[in-house]
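Record type: ASSEMBLY
Status: queued
Input:
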Amino acid sequence: MTTNALFFTLSYLTITLLPITAFGFAFNALMVCLAVWHIALLRLNKQGVRNAILNAVALVGMAITVMSIGIKSTVSVFVALMLLACQLKVLQAKTLRQWRQVLVLNFFTFSCAFLFSQSLYIALLVLFMLGFNLVLMQTLQHVGTIKATSQFVVSKILLSCVLSVLLILFLPKLPAFWQLPGPQLAKTGLSETVSPFSISQLSQSDELAFRAIFNDVDIQQGQTPLYWRAIIHDEFDGQQWHIANLQKATINYEKSGGQPTYSIIAQPSNTPWLYALGFASSSTNNVQSNYFGTLFRTDRLTATLEYVVTPAKVDASPTMSRWQYQHNTAIPKQLNLRAQRLAQQWDKQSGTTAEFIALMRKYFVEQGFSYTLTPQVATSEHMIDQFLFDYKSGFCGHYASTVAMMMRSVGIPARLVSGYLGAEYNEKQGYFSIYQYDAHAWVEYFVPNEGWKRLDPTAWVSPERLQGSLSQYQPLANQFQSNLGMSLAAFSSFPAINWLRLKLEELDYQWTRWVLNFDRQKQSSMLEAMLGKNNQHLSGVIAIITLGIIFTGIFFYIQFNSRIKEPDAIKHYRRLCSFSSIDLEHTPPKQSIEQLQQQFPEQSADLMQFYADFCANRYQGKTFGKNQNIHAKNLINSIKTKAKRTI
Amino acid sequence: MFGMFKQLFARFIRKKHSADSIAFKHNTIYILPSTMGTGFIGVSVLNFLLGINYQNNLLLAVAYLMIMLLIIALLYGYANFNASEVKLVAINSAHCNTPPSVTLAITSNKRLLDFSIAHDALEEPIHIPSIERTVLQSAPLRLERGKHLIGQFKFVSHFPFGLVSVWSYLYLKKSIYAYPNPLENNESMYAFRATENSDELSNSTLVVDEFKQLTPFQSGMNMHRVSWKHYAKSQQLLVKEYEGELGAQTLRFDYAELQGTVEQRLSKLCYLVLEAEASDTFYAFKLGGFELSANRGEAHKLKCLEALCDY
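Status: finished
Output:
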């Protein structure tokens, strides 16, 4: 029972403390306390805590859980309460029946971890825990040692895994019966407001943001910078850029001819915003495109999502309505006066927008602006002035905000776009990985009759940033790595670690692609390819029949395997007896052999020899070796031919 | 409704499984998920619902995995039980406290795991973790005084994982006796002399000690009567027999003459029978309408004891 109890407590603690389940400090502390209490009880060899105490602990625990997590994230509270209840049950358990209840319930509790993360590692962890749980179920019956039981369980689990994969592949997938609240995930990533001036250190994460899979090879690494658009910000209040009101306004675009589609596997971000290159629309369910040509989902992204992106046709000669113009040129007039004056000065010197941009660029380059991940925090309310004339260093947010504000101040409609820039290309598998540290912000400005154009002022100060991913950008390597903290990407300068990182990344890609995103659409296209268009409905039947055949096979295998094998000597003896004309089953061996000698006088000597071997093996404990075996087989063969002849 | 079904099933079992031995094979093995297994299915359904509603392939996989495990458990459970045999070896009638027991031989040509024997009169099921070849198992039954039909034995295995119940029955249409527990009587058994022919008896008491002859010793004879003199001389064990022994030692136990409640009186009677048998005394036995003339020996004792059970 101690193994049981210890295993349960440790596994609940593991699930609680996993980084994917953000239950809050208070709940974690509670679970640690309960675990320590339990281990102390085990050391003192006490079992079962009084119900009154447990009830009190349960009430306090529930209060702590709700306070620690908050009632809003229903799923987290649910799983946390589940863990708490199981832990208390383990503390209470005394009888065999209670242990059994815990063992069965664990199959639910452990798999709840999948609500928060479906990564390969979590899957392996849960599989291991379920396997050990099964071993414990078996040992409750006191049959065999833990080692023997483990071997038994491992083979059964592997078999069941294969069979369930078969079922997942072929059993028709059902749609969700009802909408359940998703778990609230704490995620880093794009934020809906951009306020670069109040950030002193851009914390970077090497977590994956999404992957992109292109079917054609045209888009290859390094040819054109990849700007993945996600959120449009078109309202500036002097301090930060706010998300556009129309970000969630659905518009259907016409498909642009000629351009190939590609698919993106987005990691859970807990926001509805999706990524695409340029103007895009999507044919995937629940994925919509908005006024700005970016994609979004109707609900928050709490699990990985694979969607298809279709490049969309942009209006050839766009014009802008009066209110749109006003909206896209609005700035707080009383702030950043120096920057506004500078912009107006450039406006006078230039005739076209292009010339204006060239002047801006000249200023940034000549004034020696630099790119940094650790900028100074703005102290004045004229934040852009301070950046433009004093600090002269910052990251993408600073440059984009400044340029967009200056363009607006002279009447050029401009807006901020946040998304990702660059990608890491995996040559073997042919896909791009985009990480959180690739997050970027840039500017889009409007030219009448030409439409919205992209402008990336960050490129003026660090043009290398445009190619590839930030992890491959050498000048900032030190800063980048110190901001990452402890992670594999931080050590990517060591070849072995970088190789390992890329391998793990590839594995994770395959896992996400084939396991997590195997949805109804993928299933039906797979079945169509395998069974043809009209036979898809047969897949379920095929799966059941296959299972039936497999189980029948297993059944006969077990039957065959569980029979105890007779020693060779006895096997040969029985074979010899079967040649006799009378039934020798109940006669002692000596008489049987004599009977056979009478029947087959020619083999008399050989039979005697066999009897001697047989006795030596059975009664004196000598081995029935190779020579004896050969002799016995020859004897059987000669008698067999003889017996045939007489018939 | 449920009760009626249960009765029908019991009758079916009685008809099908009444024999002295049962071979476990496809038509005598019953197999269903156990209570734990039912819970397991419930949890699997929960996982399935969660998996569908979150479109979570891994949760679905766990749900399927559990069902597959259950089916595999059913197969292994069946294979574990199959091709084994239970045979009745002996019925050991005894006093309630001894207690009476039934000896069964469980034979398997492979390893039979987690085997338990249940019977209504068993205090708790007998659990045998592992059986290879043959195991003789005695099942001590807790019975009230009386003659009982042994009835139904149930053999259960929960191998593997405790998820399945594989079971079968053996219905023994044989009787077992639970004799009353002997209760020491205040009066010595010699107080119960045969009263009829009292004259003869009184005469014969006079010749009690008249030596008759020496007979060779047989095991079970009273050691007090061995003639040690002869043994010392000739190394021969001889037993002294006395004239008039038969008459002198004839006792008569009558239920009607004993004090106490019915059970106490039966227990006392039982004690007297055992005592008399131990001292090789002839005794007659009367219990209500049942009467046995004076005799001795194992068969006589059994008759008396069985009569005590039937009363």
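Annotation: Confidence is low (pLDDT under 50) at residues 197-208 of chain B.
Annotation: Residues 17 and 170 of chain B are 5 Å apart (CA to CA).
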